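Section 5.1 Outputs to date
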Amino acid sequence: MKVYTKTGDKGTTSLFGGTRVPKDHARIESYGTVDELNSYIGLIRDQEINTSYKAILIEVQDRLFTVGAILATPPEKEVKKNGELRLQNLGIVPTDIELLENEIDQMEESLPPMTHFVLPGGHTTVSYCHIARCVCRRAERLAVHLSHNEHVPEIAITYLNRLSDYLFVLARKLSHDLQADEVKWIPRK
Protein backbone atom coordinates (compact mmCIF):
# COMPACT_ATOMS: atom_id res chain seq x y z
CA MET A 1 0.00 0.00 0.00
CA LYS A 2 1.43 3.38 -1.00
CA VAL A 3 1.37 6.31 1.41
CA TYR A 4 0.42 8.70 -1.36
CA THR A 5 -2.74 8.09 -3.38
CA LYS A 6 -3.08 11.48 -5.10
CA THR A 7 -6.84 11.32 -4.45
CA GLY A 8 -6.61 14.36 -2.15
CA ASP A 9 -4.70 16.57 -4.55
CA LYS A 10 -7.82 18.58 -5.37
CA GLY A 11 -8.62 19.36 -1.73
CA THR A 12 -11.02 16.52 -0.90
CA THR A 13 -10.68 13.40 1.23
CA SER A 14 -12.72 10.32 2.09
CA LEU A 15 -14.65 9.72 5.26
CA PHE A 16 -15.18 6.22 6.64
CA GLY A 17 -17.36 4.48 4.08
CA GLY A 18 -16.00 6.39 1.09
CA THR A 19 -17.98 9.64 1.11
CA ARG A 20 -15.74 12.42 -0.27
CA VAL A 21 -15.77 15.82 1.42
CA PRO A 22 -13.61 18.97 1.32
CA LYS A 23 -10.57 18.77 3.57
CA ASP A 24 -11.88 21.72 5.59
CA HIS A 25 -15.20 19.97 6.36
CA ALA A 26 -16.20 20.09 10.05
CA ARG A 27 -15.84 16.32 10.31
CA ILE A 28 -12.25 16.46 9.00
CA GLU A 29 -11.38 19.37 11.31
CA SER A 30 -12.83 17.42 14.21
CA TYR A 31 -11.04 14.11 13.75
CA GLY A 32 -7.88 15.86 12.52
CA THR A 33 -7.70 17.70 15.83
CA VAL A 34 -8.17 14.41 17.68
CA ASP A 35 -5.22 13.07 15.68
CA GLU A 36 -3.17 16.14 16.67
CA LEU A 37 -4.11 15.54 20.30
CA ASN A 38 -3.04 11.91 20.01
CA SER A 39 0.39 13.05 18.81
CA TYR A 40 0.78 15.35 21.82
CA ILE A 41 -0.26 12.51 24.13
CA GLY A 42 2.54 10.47 22.53
CA LEU A 43 4.97 13.31 23.25
CA ILE A 44 3.95 13.29 26.93
CA ARG A 45 4.30 9.50 27.03
CA ASP A 46 7.84 9.79 25.62
CA GLN A 47 8.95 11.87 28.63
CA GLU A 48 10.63 10.51 31.74
CA ILE A 49 7.44 9.97 33.73
CA ASN A 50 6.02 7.24 35.95
CA THR A 51 5.25 4.03 34.05
CA SER A 52 1.69 4.01 35.43
CA TYR A 53 1.06 7.37 33.71
CA LYS A 54 2.50 5.93 30.50
CA ALA A 55 0.13 2.96 30.68
CA ILE A 56 -2.89 5.25 31.06
CA LEU A 57 -1.65 7.42 28.19
CA ILE A 58 -1.37 4.37 25.90
CA GLU A 59 -4.97 3.53 26.80
CA VAL A 60 -5.96 7.13 26.05
CA GLN A 61 -4.21 7.01 22.67
CA ASP A 62 -6.09 3.84 21.80
CA ARG A 63 -9.40 5.46 22.78
CA LEU A 64 -8.53 8.56 20.73
CA PHE A 65 -8.21 6.39 17.63
CA THR A 66 -11.71 5.17 18.39
CA VAL A 67 -13.00 8.74 18.85
CA GLY A 68 -11.35 9.63 15.54
CA ALA A 69 -13.08 6.71 13.81
CA ILE A 70 -16.41 7.81 15.27
CA LEU A 71 -15.88 11.37 14.04
CA ALA A 72 -14.77 10.10 10.61
CA THR A 73 -18.03 8.21 10.12
CA PRO A 74 -20.86 10.14 8.45
CA PRO A 75 -24.39 9.49 9.75
CA GLU A 76 -25.43 7.52 6.67
CA LYS A 77 -22.63 4.99 7.33
CA GLU A 78 -23.38 4.56 11.07
CA VAL A 79 -26.09 1.91 10.70
CA LYS A 80 -25.45 -1.74 9.83
CA LYS A 81 -27.88 -3.72 7.68
CA ASN A 82 -29.52 -5.29 10.73
CA GLY A 83 -30.29 -1.82 12.11
CA GLU A 84 -27.65 -1.98 14.85
CA LEU A 85 -25.48 1.10 15.28
CA ARG A 86 -21.97 0.30 14.07
CA LEU A 87 -20.47 3.02 16.27
CA GLN A 88 -21.70 1.37 19.44
CA ASN A 89 -19.34 -1.51 18.73
CA LEU A 90 -16.20 0.59 18.34
CA GLY A 91 -15.23 0.66 21.97
CA ILE A 92 -15.93 3.97 23.74
CA VAL A 93 -17.84 2.88 26.80
CA PRO A 94 -18.70 4.47 30.15
CA THR A 95 -15.83 2.62 31.85
CA ASP A 96 -13.38 4.60 29.66
CA ILE A 97 -14.70 7.79 31.23
CA GLU A 98 -14.70 6.21 34.69
CA LEU A 99 -11.02 5.29 34.25
CA LEU A 100 -10.16 8.94 33.67
CA GLU A 101 -12.28 10.03 36.63
CA ASN A 102 -10.64 7.45 38.90
CA GLU A 103 -7.18 8.57 37.79
CA ILE A 104 -8.12 12.21 38.42
CA ASP A 105 -9.41 11.37 41.91
CA GLN A 106 -6.30 9.36 42.74
CA MET A 107 -3.89 12.10 41.57
CA GLU A 108 -5.81 14.82 43.40
CA GLU A 109 -5.42 12.99 46.72
CA SER A 110 -1.73 13.92 46.78
CA LEU A 111 -2.12 17.48 45.48
CA PRO A 112 -2.79 20.64 47.42
CA PRO A 113 -6.25 22.09 46.79
CA MET A 114 -6.48 24.62 43.99
CA THR A 115 -6.99 28.14 45.25
CA HIS A 116 -6.09 30.00 42.03
CA PHE A 117 -5.78 29.39 38.33
CA VAL A 118 -2.33 28.05 37.43
CA LEU A 119 -0.08 29.45 34.72
CA PRO A 120 0.94 26.70 32.27
CA GLY A 121 4.62 25.82 32.55
CA GLY A 122 7.24 25.08 35.17
CA HIS A 123 8.72 22.07 33.37
CA THR A 124 8.77 20.96 29.74
CA THR A 125 6.72 17.82 30.47
CA VAL A 126 4.12 19.86 32.34
CA SER A 127 3.94 22.28 29.42
CA TYR A 128 3.32 19.38 27.02
CA CYS A 129 0.36 18.37 29.21
CA HIS A 130 -1.06 21.88 29.05
CA ILE A 131 -0.66 21.98 25.27
CA ALA A 132 -2.43 18.62 24.99
CA ARG A 133 -5.19 19.90 27.29
CA CYS A 134 -5.74 22.92 25.03
CA VAL A 135 -5.79 20.76 21.88
CA CYS A 136 -8.25 18.43 23.64
CA ARG A 137 -10.55 21.37 24.42
CA ARG A 138 -10.37 22.43 20.75
CA ALA A 139 -11.20 18.87 19.67
CA GLU A 140 -14.16 18.92 22.03
CA ARG A 141 -15.38 22.28 20.67
CA LEU A 142 -15.09 21.01 17.10
CA ALA A 143 -16.98 17.81 17.95
CA VAL A 144 -19.73 19.88 19.59
CA HIS A 145 -19.84 22.16 16.54
CA LEU A 146 -20.15 19.12 14.28
CA SER A 147 -22.94 17.74 16.49
CA HIS A 148 -25.08 20.80 15.73
CA ASN A 149 -25.40 19.62 12.12
CA GLU A 150 -24.65 15.89 12.14
CA HIS A 151 -24.96 13.02 14.59
CA VAL A 152 -22.02 12.67 16.99
CA PRO A 153 -22.42 10.15 19.81
CA GLU A 154 -22.58 12.01 23.10
CA ILE A 155 -20.08 9.64 24.70
CA ALA A 156 -17.35 10.83 22.31
CA ILE A 157 -17.86 14.43 23.43
CA THR A 158 -18.03 13.38 27.08
CA TYR A 159 -14.78 11.44 26.69
CA LEU A 160 -12.99 14.49 25.27
CA ASN A 161 -14.34 16.68 28.07
CA ARG A 162 -13.13 14.31 30.78
CA LEU A 163 -9.80 13.80 29.03
CA SER A 164 -9.09 17.53 29.15
CA ASP A 165 -9.79 17.43 32.90
CA TYR A 166 -7.43 14.47 33.23
CA LEU A 167 -4.68 16.29 31.32
CA PHE A 168 -5.02 19.32 33.58
CA VAL A 169 -4.71 17.23 36.73
CA LEU A 170 -1.86 15.22 35.19
CA ALA A 171 -0.03 18.51 34.57
CA ARG A 172 -0.50 19.43 38.22
CA LYS A 173 0.59 15.97 39.38
CA LEU A 174 3.68 16.07 37.19
CA SER A 175 4.51 19.51 38.58
CA HIS A 176 4.33 17.94 42.03
CA ASP A 177 6.34 14.83 41.05
CA LEU A 178 9.00 16.85 39.22
CA GLN A 179 9.13 19.45 42.00
CA ALA A 180 8.40 22.16 39.45
CA ASP A 181 7.02 25.51 40.50
CA GLU A 182 3.27 25.81 40.06
CA VAL A 183 2.81 29.52 39.45
CA LYS A 184 -0.57 30.86 40.55
CA TRP A 185 -2.33 33.43 38.41
CA ILE A 186 -3.13 36.42 40.56
CA PRO A 187 -5.10 39.10 38.69
CA ARG A 188 -4.06 42.71 38.97
CA LYS A 189 -6.02 44.82 41.39
